[in-house]
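Below: protein 1.
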Amino acid sequence: MKYEILMMVNSAIEKASIENNLKQFLVVLLVSLTVATLPQIFSWFRHIPYTLLLVIVGLVLAFVDVRLANLSPELILSIFLPPLLFEAAWNFKWLDLKRDIFPICLYAVIGVVISILGIALGLNQINGLSLTTALLIGASLSATDPVSVTALFRELGVGTRLTTLMEGESLFNDGMAVVAFSFLLGLPLGTSKLGIQPILLQLFSVVGIGIAVGSLIGFGISYLTQRFDLPLVEQSLTLVSAYGTYLITEDLGGSGVIGVVTTALILGNFGSRIGMNPRTRIIVTEFWEFLAFFVNSIVFLLIGDQIDFAILGDNLEIITVTVGAMLLTRALAIYGLGYFSNSIANSEISPQQQTIVWWGGLRGSVSIALALSIPAILPEREKIIATVFGVVLFTLLVQGLTVKPLLEKLKLLNNEPLRQEYSEAVARLTALNRVLEYLNQVEKRPDIDPEFYHYQQTLIKGEITRLQEEIDQLQREYPNLQGFTNEQLRSELLGVEADTYAEFVKAGRLNRELAPFLQEDFIDNKNCDN
């Protein structure tokens, strides 16, 4: 009897807990969606990137002591991080990565080491923090999170080169930061040994397992989806692969971050071509765009909501030194490694671009999760968490809100908004011409009302004439649009060639996808344009 009563009590507690968590989740979601609609109601809010707006709202809630939910590191790392990484890597083009792989690797590997050592040295020498504490703060803050900045890039029409550099660095340095943090955390806990050989052994082991598992799952799903055409199943497989890769890699002792990035890069650049038809690719891409928006809405709101202003005030001196050391070491890494890359690999990354990469290196959810994952037995855990929260807040609000003026000051916006206007006019003209062709084909159908038919024909022809005049005027006023048109055509030709090879692979007439003949010409011309 007592056992049954105990079971009933436990069941009631679990039910209440589930209901409470569900209510918290719905409140967070409701607040996030409300924030998303603000720019549509008040035009002034359009000047603030959506993710930064979420942080600000979270800060306001924290200031009035309204806590939406508890932010656990396991929640970020295991639930939120895989979809964010997967979406970014899925949309990352291999051609862009191949062109800038050398500077990206420099920033993501050597840049992380410089950042950790520079921050640790500053905190140890100026604030007198223990070396262990200083290194853990440096490792937590070595992972960049430029979601807000790259979203702003897309909104303003900034060139793809900057987006590639910042997203590429972030994708890879997240993995390096987690590896470095895990090793440094193991030193005071006795699970890691200090020395060149143990460090290199653990690094290659963790990275190697991540790449191996990611490659196995990525290529496995790529060839599996060749055997059927079920969009919802293929979409679900990408979701399973994101979480499955992360969990399996972590269980095997590898880096789940690197595993997810590897899987997504393979599926986005290889599997989506040989195993998915164009319609399915669009469905999957839109699904991941929604999921990234959904997850970012929750994460950035909760980051702001978790701030404790009293603790931040107590550690203001340490936070100030950390911000200064972080900005200084990142400047040394970006400009120094950028110069090295330009000299060795002829990367041609301009000083203006390097400045944006330096200033746009925001910190976010990964840094927060790493700091929160520190065990309570470490003596200065609260100081580490407060410092990391303070620095993340600085980068999101100060750096994040000043990227747009900096882009304008450095004249990096160029004529991208004009290009977008031109592209939209061309796309609409092409679409309406196709509509008119279809309309001409159905002219003789007996069920068509002649009066309605002629009305539609006149309406479409009038809009086509207007669009053609708009395009002609843009070409006359801005002759350099011709180079942009040529670049678009080169990209379209390359896409047609690559898709054709993918069709042959899918049909079993080729056992591998061939490297496009036009690829090298495309890269050379793109470099010249930049």
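Below: protein 2.
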Amino acid sequence: MGTIPNHTIEQVAAANDIVEVIGSYFPLKRAGTNFRALCPFHQEKTPSFHVNPARQSFHCFGCGVGGSVFRFVMDYEHIDFPASVRRLAARAGIPVIEEQGGSTDDDRQHEARRTLLKLHAEAAEWFHENLLKREFAAPAREYLKQRGISSAVVKSWQLGFAPESWDACLKWALDQGYKRGTILQSGLVKLRDEERPESEVYDRFRGRLMFPICNDVGEVIAFSGRILTSDKEAAKYLNSPETPLFRKGSILFGLHKTKRGLIDAGCAIVCEGQLDLITLFEAGLTNVVAPQGTAFTEGQARILKRYVNEVVLCFDADAAGQKAAERSLEPLLENNLVVRVAEMPPGEDPDSLVRKEGAEKFGARIAAARDFFDFWIEREVAATDVTNLSKKMQLARQLAETVARVHDPLMRNEVISKVAARLGVGTADFSTLLPKPQRTRNPNAPLRMVAPAPRHEIALLCLLALRDAEARNFLLTQDWPEVVKETPGSEMLARILESDLRPDDPASLNLFMSSLPAAEESLVSAWLLQKKPPNAAAVARDWWEGLRQPALRRRLQAAESRLKLPRLSPGEVVALQKQVVDLRGQLDDFSRFSPTRAVES
């Protein structure tokens, strides 16, 4: 699979000052030679988040997160490493050209993915041009005008139109040089006979307003088409099928534009349709998402949990909207999200309400949204004659099944108290109706890994090898591979010495840190913020000898043990005896170890 070359990563790091990058997200205050702020990755009242401009690194002494400028963008924007490099490269105007390997399966899959992404991007542009310029798209333009969607919004969201034709998209794609198999794989066309792969194909989207569906970095991966007529036999919305790019249950519409708003608000406004989302976003309510369909899936809820702790459901007031809200509940609760409901008046949706009330009133409606269980309990109780014991017990069992979906123990107890109070029964009595919760761990739940702290002498040598060129050069001239191999807990020192990092070059340090797991990168970022002794090279020599001495003793013990083995050849005996003499001589040469006192500068 294609990889971003190291020289490009280093170039991108050098072109993006970490103080400027982090300062573009939230204000930093100077604190001596460093900068400081409240940590964006955990709640705190006293700033423990430090940014070091000299070494272009950050570290929070409260939660332990830290690393390079790439790590910050990855954690803050919730994207992977390649995406963070591309984002910072775009910020600096640096082109990113990936290196390709040989003709492996990974390379073929990577190339196929790139081709599909290119086809989707060009198809989105073709649909968009149709909407803007073609006579046959006049009804779509009129529809958008009636819905209050301006040309600026059309361009911003790259809305398009699929002509009412059986093969217009197919012919266009073939004319662009795409193969039939690729076009079919994209989902833009479909087989006339699903049982016969060789049968004719025709356009999937015909006579529909087209919404490009993007992944979280803004690449078009699918489409959703809305019908313009009131044809009751045709689906109102038609989505792309599952493809190598698109998994319906793992994508949230608009996330590439709204995730910053989600992170800032800590709360997601969830609506049903694409137009609802676009209207809210353009009105300034940017913390909004829409599932691909009506109800949330487990995958979508898991993605949303990366950005927020709370959701407000804004589904339509009709029966379908209420059912979608209930179906969304379990996956949202499974991911410990607080769920509230903003009730829409009959016949209204978020799009119409924002246009009628304005963004400020709609925002107040969101702020006043009721807890889902308050809304749900009242609705269910109001629809039941609770004076009838049989009906009351039936309702209690029904409510207990839903309460059982709540996995967070505090939230669960709170809901039990609410239901019991509304039904007029004891909490203990109601609790007996709950099915036993399944205590299976979500396999997709992230684990926070903490790198074990190396022993003091190894940690000090790591710090010196990272921070001081003379100390590093000394260590590189020693028999460090052998000593490290025989010294438990020295894996990080080996990583540092194996790398080509340059202690005086922050971009080189960023490149090195980007090669580490997050926990180890945090460890390195802490070392980069510590002061080093003024006599670093001398300290490195003393502590290295202290590390090397026990390694020599272990080698001597191993050689002496081997000499006692039976059936050694005369040559093996001579070689081992020579090794023992040599190792004893090296140990005799050691003066009593007394490491130079490390006085902080």
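Residues 306 and 459 are 33 Å apart (CA to CA).
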